[in-house]
Amino acid sequence: xxxxxxxxxxxxxxxxxxxxxxxxxxxxxxxxxxxxxxxxxxxxxxxxxxxxxxxxxxxxxxxxxxxxxxxxxxxxxxxxxxxxxxxxxxxxxxxxxxxxxxxxxxxxxxxxxxxxxxxxxxxxxxxxxxxxxxxxxxxxxxxxxxxxxxxxxxxxxxxxxxxxxxxxxxxxxxxxxxxxxxxxxxxxxxxxxxxxxxxxxxxxxxxxxxxxxxxxxxxxxxxxxxxxxxxxxxxxxxxxxxxxxxxxxxxxxxxxxxxxxxxxxxxx
Length: 268
Ligand SMILES: Nc1ncnc2c1ncn2[C@@H]1O[C@H](COP(=O)(O)OP(=O)(O)OP(=O)(O)O)[C@@H](O)[C@H]1O
Ligand SMILES: [Mg+2]
Hints:
Layout: E1 8-17, E2 32-42, E3 47-52, H1 58-65, E4 73-78, E5 81-84, H2 89-92, E6 98-101, H3 105-108, H4 115-129, H5 138-144, H6 161-174, E7 179-183, H7 191-207, E8 211-215, H8 219-225, E9 228-233, E10 236-242, H9 243-248, H10 253-261
Parallel strand pairs: 3-8, 3-9, 6-7, 7-8
Antiparallel strand pairs: 1-2, 1-4, 4-5, 9-10
Bound molecules: adenosine-5'-triphosphate (ATP) and magnesium ion.
């Protein structure tokens, strides 16, 4: 059982941001909590959903998990290895063990680099982290994600939104992390390609036996994709459990309100 032997355990993560408008005396004395004592367990090979209203701390948590931000308190353990989250991801060694896919592929790709350069960089980065001699197969990854190889010489602005997000998925996978954090990976995309991108992400993760954290506002997608769900509220975990429990049996009033308020839409 994955819960008895989780791949990743995060415990006691807290992070506080300065009050908004502090310099002007507005909101003084009201520190905003990015995260308050957040813990999570990821079963190996699972997809874990994170939902919660805007500002509840989902992105803050994902970025700490991926080693892109630090937290003054808390611990992250992957397998036997404990990472010090108060140090930068590069120093703690967390960076690259977890790769993030962001909401808006247009701002997450370097506009000055060709697609080929971006993907090569990720392959080299991943190889360095795991000191692996075996090169990742770029051509096979392009084919799997439905990206024509002619895109390799192009720059991001020459690609469609869907193509850019496929490149971001390729970039994340080519670094060969253990865990992918996808932060609302389709919310900036045209609805016509959303389901396709989500399906591709789910399938390629499974094929590589990777583990994923899927952050989303779309409860229907979370219900279809995830084996367990964490509900964030005001920087805390308000409720969590197996998807089936959260959607049909949790008696947490906040959870019930979220689920009852969702639009009846089934996209995947
Ligand atoms: N760099 C920052 N500086 C100051 N405050 C921040 C920073 N990043 C996040 N916050 C604050 O931390 C809280 C959590 O933000 P976060 O972006 O993690 O929420 P979220 O759940 O991802 O929201 P959304 O659904 O809108 O993406 C918010 O109050 C936000 O304003
Ligand atoms: Mg966010």
